[in-house]
Specification:
Helix 9 crosses helix 18. The protein has 19 helices and 17 strands.
Length: 652
């Protein structure tokens, strides 16, 4: 026992030495989350606590066999530093939260009465809930909820307009001398409400890029879903949040948060003549400039099966990085997005299993089966720790009724039963490298490899469905959003097996089921090859396309990519393109070695150019915060042509 404690102390000591003595640019430990500035006091304190907690849980609370698998790189337990405390993420319903107001622990906030207060309280709610969880916060009813604030604001300005008339003409009877007093009232209220709505959306975006959580170490990981509200109020919200995003922050910077997710649906916003078609066009324009919004597709069959017109809670929503929570085996009468989220997830190192299988596919599936058994047991063990927590351990998430059914809990009640609305999730990484190890080709190169890839992912999904049925809980499969993990697995495998061409010879494993970022393929082929995996990964998924040049100069082509995603069965997708900014002259666009506006170079002694890039679903304002593996991945990313295809890729 004493020897184990001494070893634990030595590990923590070494970790603290590295965090204390190294710059973030030289220390992967301080760059495992690009949303944290590891060179600040609070960023360093978060890293001290996180890394010490991981060691503690592996030594004291995780089953030794599972802990060994994690340490050796066979599996990866995500957010291990919060293992015994909290859950990952939540889909927040603002309408319910705002009714009657809420309490953040330092006093009660009254029910909002204007669009300005609606937007301010939305930011406060995201920040407050972020302090109860380690993952992201997603607003699922943004346009609907903010629309209520617009309605209240408009009604107030109508009354104000009436007061103006009464002041000018003494009584309402004097209006007979005015050409159209009602038209004036409406115009006055509309102009004032639209102005307030824009300012509210601008304020929300500024707040979510400046307010901090978790002891000041990072801004909240926030997402907002919108696009389906066709009321005048909802449309005003959607238009103005897009325009505020397009305008950027105070000096024209691209906002990093919130992640915007525009919900696309035939009959609502997809085709000309539909109520929100103009807003879909605007969403494409803004995304072509600012990288947001991303696009989710309600008509994808696995999303459409839950959709009920007139019931926003049945519109599938996404967390920004990719997480999706919808099916509810625990309570099939409430397959809704509101008040639910992921409890935890653990990823499997697929390429290692493939390497050890030595081209024997039957052996691969046998070993995969064993790993899945262990992951299911580990997820259930972690759930048991989470379930023993009390409502008071989650002062906002549970005691303010954010989580489904938590409003029935007393402070000392266990959260066990209400947590069962959430998901226990297995993830995977490196399908491309797995296929290369098994067949010599990845799924962008070969029809046989694509078919095997679908068989592998389909089998993992089948095992999650079986676990759901057996345990009466919501097991799901996610296409892992690997940030630090992409480099961790391959680094360990390269040390163990050497540099295997196409498998361990780069600094990263390819994210989830994606076609490798370095592979030359058309946008259309990439979309069509990745789309079938979205249907299998019910815990979350995303597909990217990389475009070259400035897409604002060809919005039709940009829109065609979004339409190809929708028609191919993608559930959630995004388009990457260069977004650079010179902080000296303010130019925003594509910058090479010199600024096109002022002509200065990046190394002239002034500030470096800002190069906004996407990492596992969210944006980062500087590539310097990426870990080494992600820097290498960004360096290797090829642009996807809008031609008909390339090379020797077989049509699948």
């Amino acid at each position: 026992m004493a020897e184990n404690e001494a070893e634990f102390g030595r590990k923590v000591w070494d970790i603290f030495d590295e965090i204390t003595g190294a710059k973030a640019t030289d220390c992967n430990l301080k760059r495992d989350n690009a949303n944290i500035n590891g060179d600040t006091a609070m960023g360093a304190m978060l890293q001290y606590g996180s890394n010490a907690a991981r060691e503690y849980y592996l030594e004291k609370m995780v089953d030794p066999e599972i802990a060994g698998l994690h340490r050796n790189g066979d599996i990866h337990i995500h957010d291990l530093d919060f293992y015994g405390w909290t859950t990952t993420c939540t889909q927040i319903e603002l309408r319910r939260l705002f009714k009657g107001g809420f309490d953040t622990g330092h006093g009660h906030l009254r029910e909002p009465k204007s669009i300005g207060s609606y937007a301010a309280l939305a930011a406060i709610a995201i920040q407050s809930n972020q302090n109860d969880q380690h993952g992201g916060q997603s607003i699922v009813d943004f346009d609907y909820a903010m629309g209520d604030g617009v309605r209240l604001t408009y009604d107030r300005y109508l009354r104000e307009a009436n007061d103006i008339y009464c002041t000018l003409f003494g009584t309402e009877e004097g209006e007979e001398d005015i050409d159209d007093p009602q038209e004036f009232r409406i115009r006055y209220a509309m102009v004032k409400t639209c102005r307030d709505t824009y300012q509210a959306m601008e304020g929300l975006i500024h707040n979510l890029n400046t307010m901090h959580s978790r002891a000041g170490a990072q801004i909240p990981f926030s997402s907002i879903n919108y696009g389906m509200d066709t009321t005048p109020e909802g449309r005003m919200v959607i238009r103005n949040v897009l325009l505020a995003t397009e305008a950027g922050l105070g000096n024209g910077e691209t906002p990093i948060f919130p992640i915007h997710i525009f919900k696309v649906k035939e009959g609502v916003n997809y085709n000309p003549g539909e109520p929100n078609y103009d807003l879909f066009k605007l969403a494409c324009r803004v995304s072509a400039k600012r990288l947001f919004p991303n696009f989710s597709f309600i008509d994808a069959p696995y999303n459409l099966q839950y959709y009920k017109p007139g019931h926003p809670e049945t519109e599938v929503a996404y967390m920004g990085c990719r997480t999706r929570v919808m099916a509810n085996s625990y309570d099939p009468t409430r397959e809704i997005v509101n008040g639910r989220g992921n409890l935890s997830f653990t990823s499997v190192n697929l390429p290692r299993i493939a390497i050890l299988s030595n081209h024997n596919i039957d052996f691969f599936f046998e070993q995969l089966d064993r790993k899945i058994d262990l992951v299911i047991d580990q997820l259930l063990d972690r759930f048991e720790l989470q379930a023993q927590k009390k409502a008071r351990n989650y002062p906002f998430l549970m005691q303010q009724g954010i989580w489904l059914d938590s409003d029935n809990l007393k402070p000392d009640d266990e959260v066990r039963e209400v947590l069962k609305h959430g998901t226990l999730t297995m993830g995977f990484i490196g399908l491309a490298e797995t296929l290369k190890a098994l067949t010599g080709y990845h799924h962008g190169e070969s029809k046989e490899a694509q078919n095997l890839g679908l068989e592998i992912v389909g089998y993992m999904r089948q095992r999650m469905d079986q676990a759901t049925k057996k345990h009466g809980m919501n097991f799901s499969l996610i296409a892992t959003p690997a940030e630090g993990l992409s480099g961790r697995f391959v680094r360990m495998d390269a040390e163990k097996f050497g540099k295997i061409p196409g498998v361990t010879d780069r600094e990263y494993y390819t994210n989830s089921f994606h076609i490798p970022v370095y592979y030359d393929i058309s946008a259309w082929d990439k979309i069509k090859l990745e789309a079938p995996y979205h249907a299998l990964t019910n815990g979350g998924h995303i597909s990217y396309v990389e475009l070259d040049g400035d897409p604002t100069e060809n919005l039709d082509a940009f829109e065609q990519v979004v339409r190809c995603m929708k028609e191919s069965g993608i559930g959630y997708g995004s388009i990457n393109h260069p977004v650079d900014r010179d902080p000296v002259c303010g130019y925003t666009g594509i910058i090479g070695d010199t600024c096109p506006l002022c002509g200065r170079s990046e190394h002239d002694g002034h500030e470096n150019f800002e190069r906004i890039r996407r990492i596992t679903g969210y944006l980062v304002g500087t590539v310097d915060r990426f870990n080494n593996a992600k820097k290498a991945e960004v360096r290797d990313r090829v642009k996807h042509s809008l031609g008909t295809g390339c090379g020797t890729m077989e049509q699948v």
